[in-house]
Amino acid sequence: FQVKSENKKTIWNTEEVPEGSEFDDTWDPREKPEYEISFKQHVGTEDVFFGMTGKDPSTACCEDIVIKIKLPETKYSDITLDIQDKVLDLRTPKKKLLLHLPYPVNSKEGRARFLSEEEILEVTLRILRKFDFINFS
């Protein structure tokens, strides 16, 4: 099996390297923060009272992923956040989180807010889904 490459000096093809592996640093001594992943869906009265759209409470019908990360003793200015299609990379001076996301997301249009009183970073990302019988939008 021969893989053709543009550059003869490369030892592997870019398709062989999993997404997010460039962030993985096993020798980093920073601890992993506590986090929670939840899913959010947009429902209207036609969903709640009439069940007209066929949505159910499963993650297959959710539009957003919400990740809440506890960052005690952290200032907003110390947070570095990088979002790829399937990876969330968060770094602070004391904490580091490399999180492989359960679904591909739109990395260009996410929202993040830091709740300083609770010391929680809340990241909301839109799930990228193919059109199917459940997800029409």
UniProtKB/TrEMBL annotation:
Record Pfam families: PIH1_CS
What's a GO cellular component annotated to this UniProt protein? cytoplasm
- The record's region (Disordered) falls at 1-27
Instruction: Please give the Gene Ontology molecular function terms for this protein.
Output: dynein intermediate chain binding; protein-folding chaperone binding
Q: Cite a single GO BP annotation.
A: flagellated sperm motility
Where composition is biased (Acidic residues), the residues are 16-26
Q: Which residues does the UniProt record annotate as the domain PIH1D1/2/3 CS-like?
A: 32-127
Fetch the PANTHER family from UniProt.
Answer: DYNEIN AXONEMAL ASSEMBLY FACTOR 6 (PTHR21083:SF0), TWISTER (PTHR21083)
The family line of this record is: Belongs to the PIH1 family.
Protein name, UniProt field: PIHD3 protein
Give the gene that encodes this protein: Pih1d3
